Amino acid sequence: MKYDDDVSRLLDAGNESFDAGDFESALHAFVAAVDAGAEGYRINIGNTLKSLGRTADAIDAYRVGWQLGDPDIGWNLAVTLREIGETEEAAVVEQALFADRYPFVVLTEAWNRRDAGDLDGAEQLLRSILGDSDSDSDSDEGGESDSDDPASIGSDHAAGVLGMWLRQGGDSGAETERLLRRGMIQYDSARVELAWLLFSDGREDEGVRLLEEGVARGEANSLIPLGNHRWDAGRLDEARELFERGVALGDRNAADNLAHLLRHS
């Protein structure tokens, strides 16, 4: 939404203050912006209050936004309620969001169904929130969506999860690759699955490039696969550096790989 200059300046000031850790100034700016008509930024008030440790006030702010019909605020409300143990109210909000196919709630339920053995039901749930974007994800590059809308982010995440499930189930076809490409930014495990798919399809250079991009983006899941590839290629110093980065993040598999590398080099 396009706001007038005064409101835009308030929003910019709020975002800059928030990013700088000056939450009091951010809160002041966001409240002023919402009072001036930037209703879509009510969620920022709740988030800033939460960052200030004022959880009860954050919940009150989220409740107002949820009552006004904002599903993204409803999701933040449900998450925060669960964090403080208010599971009954959280469940009521989640049920309403699920009825409207809010992606993050559907994702949670899909995982629950898969864990319970209902693989078809889990897949159907994810397909119900993919929207039309998947038909536009045919480019070889794929990847990051231009949208920062939480619903779009959630749908892309769902695409990555579904692509991973299909790949792990033995499907390496065009749809699986397309889903993995669409979802790999929001769900970085999809990037690794896509790299494996490309390796198995003889597109090793492209798979390596994807993992390198993942490491450059700070995606921990790409460290071990790329380290293993470097090891296999005889580039031991690079492999060791990648495993060491994984160890620094607390990855036990990286620690095991590093120990094995050091014993055999």
**Care to count the β-strands?**
0
User: What string gives the helices and strands in order?
Assistant: HHHHHHHHHHHHHHH
Please tell me how large the radius of gyration is.
22 Å
- Strand proportion: under 5%
Number of domains: 3
Topology:
Elements: H1 5-19, H2 23-35, H3 42-51, H4 55-67, H5 71-83, H6 87-99, H7 103-115, H8 119-127, H9 150-168, H10 174-183, H11 189-200, H12 204-216, H13 223-232, H14 236-248, H15 252-263
Helix pairs in contact: 1-2, 2-3, 3-4, 4-5, 5-6, 7-8, 9-10, 9-11, 10-11, 11-12, 12-13, 13-14, 13-15, 14-15
Protein traits:
single chain, 265 residues, mainly alpha, Serine Threonine Protein Phosphatase 5, Tetratricopeptide repeat, 15 helices, globular
Give your account of this protein's structure.
- The protein is mainly α.
- The protein has 3 domains: 5-98, Tetratricopeptide repeat domain (Serine Threonine Protein Phosphatase 5, Tetratricopeptide repeat, Alpha Horseshoe), CATH 1.25.40; 103-202, no CATH class; 219-265, no CATH class.
- It contains 15 helices and no strands.
- The chain has helices at residues 5-19, 23-35, 42-51, 55-67, 71-83, 87-99, 103-115, 119-127, 150-168, 174-183, 189-200, 204-216, 223-232, 236-248, 252-263.
- Helix 7 (103-115) packs antiparallel against helix 8.
Give the gist of this structure.
This protein is an all-alpha fold. It contains 15 helices and no strands.
